[in-house]
């Protein structure tokens, strides 16, 4: 149990998707103009992460890993399909994003219209794919840890994008050197936020 | 002919994928703590962009537009699997250093962005050149970042010591912040600043 909480806190603050690994940077920069839209995107990313990473964990555990196929027959003990993981992971992500989109459209049209174009774009958000690949690389012990990792990363990403959007709303009328306006200053703000998040390094529960 | 040259030349500066189009930031920042992985990554991305640009361009009349994202993802992930296996076989240490970021080329916005914006509407030869141009434009930024970060962060280049011992005796210290994620973001901000102050027309209003 303690390990699960530890992973959760660690993936929000220390291994933050944006500040430590730069994942999901493209939509992070493009959609952070107002707090409201960035909130919508952040929640959608959280939601998709929470579903895709555990599904990919099961696929990795029972299909791809070396010796994963032993549940079919002991003869497959030496089969290692991990070279297929990229294509399978991305297929799972694309399929689940499509499902989530249809599901939300059916059951909550208001949320659907709020998220709008962001939902289909999540399929090519590197934060989602990155989380699946990190899950594979870090070899989490059980599905509970995977759930806490995916929820933590999602919340970390949500925090980061809301923080940036709030700052960008505040500086809209500031005097910024002309060539720095827009993209340039956004990078520098993100850098400063990353320095702030560095102070969490070393925290352990 | 002049048009063809433009396809290669434009992405190097005026339409640089990172500094102007804001595509593929994630990997650009994460792999540039040293020069060597930065160069390997730049080459891998170039290869993937070129190959998938050509393949998609060849198939552009047969891909139904409703499922084009999935088709593109499959093509790109095939190319990335090839590159990943190649790196694992020939430069294993760098491939370990790049960790998940080779897999993340699939969701690299440069690849998808060029496929959507260019390859789907153009013949194979221009697509090939467009791929080379954008790959090189990406490489330029990666090499600048890798150079600055390794030189000032670790005092070496390509793994060889560059800063003379006498500097350290005189009180010079490596800037540890350079190897941190935060500084990569600020450096990109500065590159954009310099780039835009030299090309006034790129500034945001």
- Rg measurement of chain A, Å: 19 Å
Count of alpha and pi helical runs of chain A: 10
The low-confidence runs of chain B, each spanning 5 or more residues with pLDDT under 50, are: none
Tally the structural domains of chain B: 1
Q: Tell me the Rg of chain B in angstroms.
A: 18 Å
Task: Report the sheet-strand fraction of chain B.
Answer: under 5%
C-alpha termini separation of chain A:
11 Å
Q: Helix fraction of chain A?
A: over 70%
What's the overall average pLDDT of chain A, rounded? 84
Percent of residues in β-strands of chain A = under 5%
The sequence of SSEs of chain B as H and E is: HHHHHHHEEHH
Largest interface: A-B, 48 and 46 residues
Q: What fraction, in percent, of the residue positions of chain B are helical?
A: 55-70%
The largest pleated sheet of chain A is described as: none
* Morphology of chain A: globular
Please report the total strand number of chain B as a whole number: 2
Structural class of chain A: mainly alpha
Uncertain segments of chain A of ≥5 residues (pLDDT<50)? Answer: none
**What's the helix-strand series of chain A?**
HHHHHHHHHH
Shape of chain B: globular
Question: Can you walk through the features of this model?
Answer:
By secondary structure, chain A is mainly α. Helices cover 71% and strands 0% of the residues of chain A. Chain A has ten helices and no strands. The longest helix of chain A has 30 residues. In chain B, helix 3 packs antiparallel against helix 7. Chain B has one domain. Chain B has a two-stranded antiparallel sheet with strand order 1-2. In chain B, strand 1 and strand 2 form a beta hairpin. At the A-B interface, helix 2, helix 3, helix 5, helix 8 and helix 10 of A face helix 2, helix 4 and helix 9 of B.
Topology of helices and strands:
The complex is a heterodimer of chains A (205) and B (205).
Chain A: H1 2-14, H2 17-21, H3 25-30, H4 35-64, H5 85-107, H6 109-115, H7 118-121, H8 126-138, H9 143-170, H10 183-198
Helix pairs in contact in A: 1-9, 4-5, 4-8, 4-9, 5-6, 5-8, 9-10
Chain B: H1 2-9, H2 25-30, H3 35-59, H4 68-90, H5 92-98, H6 109-117, H7 124-154, E1 156-157, E2 160-161, H8 165-169, H9 181-198
Antiparallel strand pairs in B: 1-2
């Amino acid at each position: 149990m303690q390990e699960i909480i530890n992973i959760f806190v660690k993936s929000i603050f220390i291994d933050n998707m944006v500040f430590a690994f730069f994942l999901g940077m493209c939509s992070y920069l493009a959609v952070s103009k107002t707090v409201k839209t960035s909130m919508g995107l952040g929640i959608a990313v959280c939601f998709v992460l929470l579903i895709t990473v555990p599904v990919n964990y099961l696929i990795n555990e029972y299909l791809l890993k070396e010796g994963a196929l032993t549940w079919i027959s002991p003869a497959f003990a030496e089969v290692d399909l991990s070279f297929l993981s990229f294509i399978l992971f991305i297929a799972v992500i694309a399929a689940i994003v499509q499902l989530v989109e249809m599901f939300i459209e059916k059951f909550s049209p208001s949320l659907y219209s709020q998220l709008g174009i962001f939902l289909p774009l999540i399929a090519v958000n590197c934060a989602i794919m990155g989380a699946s690949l990190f899950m594979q690389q870090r070899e989490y012990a059980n599905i509970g840890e995977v759930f806490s990792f995916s929820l933590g990363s999602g919340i970390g990403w949500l925090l980061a994008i809301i923080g940036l959007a709030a700052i960008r709303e505040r500086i809209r009328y500031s005097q910024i050197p002309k060539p720095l306006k827009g993209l340039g200053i956004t990078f520098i703000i993100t850098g400063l936020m990353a320095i702030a998040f560095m102070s969490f390094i070393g925290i352990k529960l | 002919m002049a048009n063809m040259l433009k396809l290669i030349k434009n992405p190097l500066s005026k339409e640089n994928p990172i500094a102007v189009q804001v595509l593929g930031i994630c990997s650009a920042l994460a792999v540039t703590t040293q020069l060597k992985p930065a160069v390997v990554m730049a080459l891998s991305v170039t290869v993937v962009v070129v190959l998938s640009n050509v393949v998609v361009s060849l198939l552009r009349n047969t891909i139904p537009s409703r499922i084009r994202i999935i088709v593109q993802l499959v093509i790109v992930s095939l190319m990335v699997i090839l590159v990943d296996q190649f790196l694992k076989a020939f430069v294993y240490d760098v491939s370990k250093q790049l960790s998940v970021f080779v897999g993340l080329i699939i969701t690299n916005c440069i690849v998808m962005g060029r496929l959507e914006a260019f390859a789907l509407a153009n013949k194979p030869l221009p697509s090939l050149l467009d791929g080379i141009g954008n790959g090189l434009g990406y490489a330029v930024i990666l090499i600048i970042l890798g150079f600055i970060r390794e030189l000032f962060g670790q005092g070496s280049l390509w793994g060889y010591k560059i800063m003379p011992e006498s500097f350290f005796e005189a009180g010079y210290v490596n800037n540890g912040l350079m190897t941190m994620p935060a500084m990569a973001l600020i450096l990109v901000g500065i590159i954009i600043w310099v780039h835009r102050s030299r090309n006034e027309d790129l500034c945001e209003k």
